[in-house]
TrEMBL record, chain A:
<dbReference type="InterPro" id="IPR003594">
    <property type="entry name" value="HATPase_dom"/>
</dbReference>
<keyword id="KW-0902">Two-component regulatory system</keyword>
<keyword id="KW-0547">Nucleotide-binding</keyword>
<dbReference type="GO" id="GO:0046983">
    <property type="term" value="F:protein dimerization activity"/>
</dbReference>
<feature type="domain" description="Histidine kinase/HSP90-like ATPase">
    <location>
        <begin position="462"/>
        <end position="552"/>
    </location>
</feature>
<dbReference type="GO" id="GO:0005524">
    <property type="term" value="F:ATP binding"/>
</dbReference>
<feature type="transmembrane region" description="Helical">
    <location>
        <begin position="81"/>
        <end position="101"/>
    </location>
</feature>
<dbReference type="Pfam" id="PF07730">
    <property type="entry name" value="HisKA_3"/>
</dbReference>
<keyword id="KW-0808">Transferase</keyword>
Automatic annotation (TrEMBL), chain B:
<feature type="modified residue" description="4-aspartylphosphate">
    <location>
        <position position="52"/>
    </location>
</feature>
<keyword id="KW-0804">Transcription</keyword>
<dbReference type="GO" id="GO:0006355">
    <property type="term" value="P:regulation of DNA-templated transcription"/>
</dbReference>
<protein>
    <submittedName>
        <fullName>Response regulator transcription factor</fullName>
    </submittedName>
</protein>
<feature type="domain" description="HTH luxR-type">
    <location>
        <begin position="144"/>
        <end position="209"/>
    </location>
</feature>
<dbReference type="InterPro" id="IPR016032">
    <property type="entry name" value="Sig_transdc_resp-reg_C-effctor"/>
</dbReference>
<dbReference type="Pfam" id="PF00196">
    <property type="entry name" value="GerE"/>
</dbReference>
<keyword id="KW-0238">DNA-binding</keyword>
<dbReference type="GO" id="GO:0000160">
    <property type="term" value="P:phosphorelay signal transduction system"/>
</dbReference>
Amino acid sequence: MTGRRLLWVLAAISIPLGFALLEDPTLTTVVNRAVGGSFIVCGLIVWQHRPDTRTGALMTLTGFLYLGGQVLGALDWPPAHTVGEAFAVVWLAAFGAVVLGYPSGRLVGFDRVLVGAWIFGTLVWQLVWMLFLPGDENVLAVWPDAELADTIDTAQRTFNTTVGATVAVVGIHRWLRAAPALRQLLLPLLAGVAAVIVLAVQSYYRLITGEFMRPTQELTAFVLFLVPLAFLVGMLRAQLARAGMADLIVALQRAPDTQQLGAVLARTLRDPSLELVYWLPGFETYIDEDGRPCPPPADGRVLTPIEHDGEPVAALVHDAALTYEPELLALVCAAADVALAHTRLVQELTRSRVRLVEAGDEARRKIERDLHDGAQQRLVSLAIALRLTEDRLKEDPDAAASLVAAAREELKASLEELRELARGIHPAVLEHGLATALNSLAVRSPTPARVTVELDEPLPEAVELALYFVASEGLANVAKYAQAHEAEIHVTRAGDVVVIEVADDGIGGADGAHGSGLRGLADRVEAFGGRLRVTSPPGGGTRLHAELPCDASVASSR
Amino acid sequence: MRVVIADDSLLVREGIASLLRRAGFDVVAEAADGDEAVALVDAHMPDIAIVDIRMPPTHTDEGLRAAHAIRARHPDVAIVILSQHVEAGIAMRLLAETPQRLGYLLKDRVTEIEEFAASLRRVAGGGSALDPKVFERLLAAQRDDGPLGALSAREREVLALVAEGLSNRAIGERLDITEGGVQKHVRAVFTKLGLATGDDAHRRVLAVLTYLSPDGRR
């Protein structure tokens, strides 16, 4: 912050100084002198508004290098003049970085090579040249040799011009490769390229003819003066694109379904070709909306993964030009992640609701089956037996008596079955308290079970019922799978949470495979905002651990 | 009259067999599931097969499948399907497929052995037997102000028995009126409901059920 303020002060001094040192003010020289100021002022504004990019800083640097070279070069004091001359053209390298790095100001790959080459060509080579450049004002002139200096100068210009031409080609290529919608965003890049081209043409002309190309020299000054303005406008417009994030959030709220999500993201990033693809964990690949595997992105397109807790969940396949807006891209990815997470939660909730309903249907089906095959069947045979008895009462009283005895047995069995069935539907014993209910579960358990209930006050009925079913399913699993000698049920309260544990000393190794029961329990527990955990190391017994909020409002609000 | 019984509950099967033997039927074989029922019918060629609707292995509609198989192989064998609870939908489907020599009764009916025996004989004689519960259910779903409301109490009784599959003579015996009297009632009922009068008892059943079913009227 203060650094930038200092730069403003420095600009306020050096820019007027530059004009003051101007010897023959013509339109061209004034504009040429204003180029540095233009870069500095625009750069500082960009820097302030887009501190997330390096473009502002690079523009400011370009401006100071440009202006500094001119000001120092205009001073009569030889050391200052020498420094000015040494730094006269290095601004080109900074400018190249601005152009190639636009809009992020970050250089990657070949861009770095180009900028590095230009630093070499404009600074190192310049210093070498000055070692041989004769003149009183050049304190670096160790071996004055006009001819050699001239040769070095020509080679240096040729090199720098070639680098400049390459920069122009790379810039144009980048612009052409961008999606049409993004070309607008990259217009300043084109302006920068135009400036580089003008400089290159001018330089070639001089290399070939040995003379300055007057009209282009004037044109250069104007173009260079205007380029920072183009960058400034472009960067502030990009900031507007970031303001589009606000619209994105609103749009996501309205359209959380995944089909529209891609379209909304494409609009925000102004890349109509943008695609949202989904990560398929088992297959380690991305798939599109229709489930087709997504091929590796073609040239000019980039895949940016969207991660959730470090795991890929989806990705954006988009125009490579967007990587120049990494922060915007990151924001959009974050927003997409939130939207996808929301969708996932809704889906999970829907699935768990469906499972609860299905579990209810299944339970009713089982009750019907039990009634049909059990009590109903017995009662029918009982009715038949009584009918047969009725016929035999007179003619064969002994046979009738044995029929009645059989009927009584049948009736007892029916009653027992009905009792079991009723308990499965709703454990009436819960009305006598959770501890009593759990104890009576333990008594019926084939594996001896111990029950400890540490509760000061009764819990809401629904919570007690959930605890009862956890214990019941837990003990049933112990009996079925655990091969345990004994089991233990422990209920305790920790603040607003009631914890139930069903542990055994059996073989462990339970994996959710025998788990439609466990899944159903988990759904039941999660419906109360609770959690169910199963720890079952092989050989280490199985521990079913469920936590439920005890507060009744949670229980009744499901 | 030769009978094959199929029911997965041994007690029920034996009970029904005892009752039927005492009522003069010749129970020639007993099956515990659908496939066995088909095989035993093949082997014994009874006059009638009594089949429980739910049997192993799935306890859903094995009895219906067995009935279909038996009907396809031996169209002359009468079939009575027994069920713990009767569904009007199943009754409609069965009768629409083959109304002749077909019965669909609540399992409890076997204890009213005289009526049960009468139903078996009726079915074996080419008619149909439908549990009164089916008619009751369908009737309960009717609006009071429809054409049914215009029926007299006696006409309703007659309609119920028509729906069970009874012939005019059987209805007359049941209500203790002459066959001619029954015919008059039936004609009056069918005219009021706008149904075509037929003489086949089983066709009348279907006509009545179709008329009463929620989706039968156009």
